[in-house]
Design the sequence.
């Protein structure tokens, strides 16, 4: 997957690495069926209310979630912002 960013009128493309996607998969993902949309919605609490994506299956939703998190973390780092750590929920 590629990430496109714009800064000062210039556009840059960054291909996400396997390591970045693996890092993204370490974050909490809440997967819920949306009958209204007919897809599985995934939300990542560590990234705030707007961190949502979707997939046709739970597996696809989680894959899309990992890519979304990797993209967000790349943007945090590019902008010099602190990266929120993944949260561990003990049973």
Sequence:
């Amino acid at each position: 997957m590629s990430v496109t960013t714009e800064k000062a009128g210039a556009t840059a493309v960054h291909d996400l690495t396997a390591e970045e996607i693996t890092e993204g998969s370490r974050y909490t993902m809440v997967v819920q069926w949306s009958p209204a949309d007919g897809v599985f919605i995934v939300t990542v609490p560590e990234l705030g209310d707007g961190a949502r994506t979707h997939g046709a299956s739970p597996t696809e939703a989680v894959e899309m979630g990992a890519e979304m998190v990797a993209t967000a973390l790349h943007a945090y780092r590019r902008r010099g912002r602190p990266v929120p750590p993944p949260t561990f929920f003990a049973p």
Notes: The first strand starts at residue 2 and ends at 7.
